[in-house]
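Dear colleagues,

For the upcoming journal club I promised to circulate an example of a predicted protein-ligand complex. I picked one with zinc ion because it came up in last month's discussion. The inputs are reproduced below in full, followed by the predicted structure.
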Amino acid sequence: MTRHETRLISDEATIRVDLAAALRLSCRNGWHEGVANHFSAAVSADGKEFLVNPRWVHWSRVQASDLILCNADDPSTMERPDAPDQSAWSIHSALHRNLPQARVALHIHPPFSTALASLRDPTIRPVDQVTARWFGRLAYDLAFGGIASEEEEGERISRTVGNHRAVMMQNHGVTTFGNSVAEAWDALYHLERAARTMVMAYQTGQELAVMPDALAEATACEWEAYKDAEIAHFEEMKLVLDREEPDYKD
Ligand SMILES: [Zn+2]
């Protein structure tokens, strides 16, 4: 099969628009950090060809046509004039090489998730409906090895993820996954909301009312019946962008 044939060409334009929207929306929520962090989405059937945001372009300005197409198996990628950020390559090439089920990977340091990741115990406990969504469904990487400039950092993160939809990266941030940008972005939204609740609950100094495991598991299962709401959430937010900053699609 040629490189051309392995790509799902009909989907690439749509994925570009969705990934640009996810970057713009995350910026509007104040989750971005300078011009760092990176979102990626596979466009080939084998998951190895992926789009990633351009190096050091502010997320408020990213357009669909700016996204860089990379191949996770091509080590010459970092020699290209439009090479992505080194840590973007280290993390996302490993994720797309090792986790073909993770079509989309959103890596970011949003305020509340990062505050939680800075604690000795960064566990999200089931204390409300949103935190319970993550019960048994969040991987924890407790072995931060410095700013991800080495391939091994990405390899270790992808080993930790397994089949989970997100990973809490201690001393670092979070990464969420999905079959679509909509799924991964909705996961990011609800992970940051869960982290916000944990941080605010801890701030009271009061004891947490942690749900029994059976109730937490039942609540997490109930979320899975709301899959359509994940898509609706992202589609609604794209309509807001369409009204207020439609150039993300260009
Ligand atoms: Zn990072």
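Two points we might discuss: The first strand starts at residue 38 and ends at 42. Residues 37, 107, 109, 172-173 surround zinc ion (CB under 6 Å).

See you all on Thursday,
B. R.
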